[in-house]
Amino acid sequence: MSAVYRFQFKQTVPSKEIEETLFWAVFNAESVFGKPRLRLDASFIFDRDKRVCVIDKSTEVGQHIAQVFTSLITREFGEDSFKVERLPAEAKVRKETA
Q1: Phi, psi dihedrals of residue 83, rounded to the nearest 5°
Q2: How many CB atoms lie within 10 A of CB 14?
Q3: Span 47-70, pLDDT tens digits
């Protein structure tokens, strides 16, 4: 069953830094899997105003992005700076390209 990860950040975490951290996670996935596979298999979105990031984990690429993103944000902002939930795939995710 497909699902997405929904990350909700506290107000104390700057949106710009969350977005930059997501960029680095996606860049890492591109380095591992290549640009074509990233474009085909990665799906994610970041809402700056709500401080919410959603990553589709239904592919190996998406799982990789989620794992790297989680590692980076935990290290940079701390474990208490965000909450992550696994939601059914019906949650809104749009295709992004790096």
Answers
A1: -125, 140
A2: 13
A3: 999 999 999 999 999 999 999 999
